[in-house]
Amino acid sequence: MDSPPDANPPDRFNSHVAFETTAHTELNKGPAGITLNEKHNGFRHERRAKTFMVGVDENSYSVEALEWLLTSMVDDHDTVVCVRVIDKDIKHNMKNAYLAEAKRFMHDILQTNTSNKAISVVVEYQFGRLGQTFENLVCLLRSSRSLLVLFVFHF
After folding, report:
1. pLDDT, tens digit, for every residue of 107-125?
2. In the chain, which end has fewer C-beta atoms inside a 10 angstrom radius, N or C?
């Protein structure tokens, strides 16, 4: 799923509001993070749509799990939330590097949607403790009609 960082996402997706809270975490008292959101032109919220949250990291098995999710589980109008938790304090000088990495990852996910499914994709880069961050995100996403959380472990 590697691609050039400056390549444009497929024309069939539209960027929406994204958040970057790495600079002012002491002010908002929330978790530091970067959120990117892309929606397929045909995406619309439906009552029966599902939300999938998948934890990813830099290992190849995460990419394989995400590819499997997109090809085998996700249907039109579903939402895929990809979460990467970086278990360390963010260095202010690293913010741009993480933002570029998140954008590159989003582009790679959109390119993996070879079936042209009308989905919404959210990329969350969160900085903090792994367990607590996932617990907070599951609580936040629980308002969805259905939520499947997929964790990938390498043994």
Report:
1. 999 998 989 999 999 998 8
2. C
Is 110 within 8 Å of 14 (Cβ atoms)?
Answer: no
Quote the domain boundaries for residue 117.
Answer: 13-150
The answer to whether position 5 is within a domain reads: no
Looking at residue 10, what is its pLDDT? 58
| Phi, psi (deg, nearest 5) at residue 14 | -120, 135
Looking at residues 76-105, what average pLDDT do you find? 83
Check which CATH number belongs to the domain holding 103 and give it.
3.40.50
* Measured distance between the N- and C-terminal CA atoms of the chain, rounded to whole angstroms: 23
Distance CA 123, CA 106 (A): 6
Residue 6 within a domain: no
- Structure tokens, 101: 């990495």
DSSP state letter for 38: E
- For residue 72, list its beta bridge partners: none
Single-letter amino acid, residue 45: H
Residues 121 and 83: beta-carbon distance below 8 Å: no
